[in-house]
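In this section we walk through a basic example: taking a raw amino acid sequence and producing a predicted 3D structure, encoded as discrete structure tokens. The instruction is simple. Fold the sequence below.
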Amino acid sequence: MITTNSSVALGQLGDTIYLLMDRDGQRPHLYDEDGCEDSPFIKLINSSNLSELMSAADEIHSMLGPSVDFIDDRGGFQIPKKIKNDQSPYIASLFEENPPEKALKKTEEAIKIWSIAKIGPGVHAQHDLKKFGAESFTAVPLADVITAVTDLRRHCLLFAWLVGKTAFENAHGLTPMDKSLKYRGLNLEGDSDLSEYYRKLCDAPANKWTRFTIEFGSFEMMHLCEPIQIERDVTNYVRSVFSILMSDTTTKLDGLLQPTTTPNTVVSAAWTFFGKGISKLSGPGAISVCEHCGKFYESRRSTKRFCSDSCRVLAKRKPKSTENQPYVTTIAKERMRLRDSAKSLPAHP
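The resulting token sequence is shown next.
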């Protein structure tokens, strides 16, 4: 059996299920990990079950290192235990309301593979064991991790619409004209670790005035409006949310005395990755939304419309829509104008 290093694990303390960082162990190499060269942040935002989420978290933790919290991680010496066998339906329901059988099996598989009983303490925990005679742990509630990824996905779709990379209906994801629904923004009022993290960033001096757009914007009922009516409010909202979540960074001098900026959390690093990638129209690092499956993918060409050849083939089999041309936002028009103007400039000698 082919194995790979794992630096994250799953455990349970009381009624709370945790994603644990700073672990060190071996796990089976998953079949669907073969041949996938996407950024781990792309894998994270596209994850639809626990197995995909944990695989992405493994790569991200290895990439950023154990010193970067996922959100504002908890720690201590009361080590979480192995997850109870009956928790699979609950965990799967955090991804979708009525999970299919396949999702339940993927969840059960992930619980076994990433069990804290199989993946031991990492470097920092081992150091504490030698120093204090007790193993420490660093963890974040799994429900907060899944909510953080869901929040990121929803807001990235709005961003993608504003720059012309997806349709308005796909961006808000709500049934048009259904007055019983509201767009779900960041939850600043909850008692979770994630809500507390959002509030902390909003209350930072640099974000003092930006918070008002998030709390008092008129974006919640966007699906009841025509795109032209709501575009400005959505633009202000998206700009505020990304500005706040991207702000959690630290700038220092590196070993060569050059300024370097690093993220303080995985959440902030992910928002920064997509903020930069979705903003780019094409070239290395540009991120788009597949017109068939709705997943995010890295697109080097501005003409690429699908994340894979299979989605491109399946999209061609769909009957052509008789709807009018999709609404193009003011920002998307201006960005295309600037791109075309740059192309018409004479080349440097």
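Looking at the output, two observations stand out. The mean pLDDT is 89. The CA atoms of residues 65 and 152 lie 21 Å apart. In the next section we compare this with other chains.
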